[in-house]
Design goal:
alpha+beta, three-stranded antiparallel β-sheet
Length: about 60
């Protein structure tokens, strides 16, 4: 029988979408997390108007 996995996400940090022009704090934070070995990604949460830095969490 095949095994299925559900993928959820853990939010590491939240950043307001209205950062100053030329500033990318969510991307910079995610890059620092990746440099430390964490699989961090930036996604936009439209309902809260924030950028979220997330990491996938796999559960079985």
């Amino acid at each position: 029988m095949p095994t299925t996995t559900a993928q959820s996400r853990t939010v590491l940090e939240r950043f307001p979408a209205g950062a100053p022009r030329g500033s990318w704090p969510a991307e910079e934070y995610a890059a620092a997390q990746r440099a430390q070995g964490t699989d961090a990604q930036v996604v936009m949460d439209l309902s809260s108007d924030q950028f979220l830095v997330i990491t996938p969490t796999t559960t079985q």
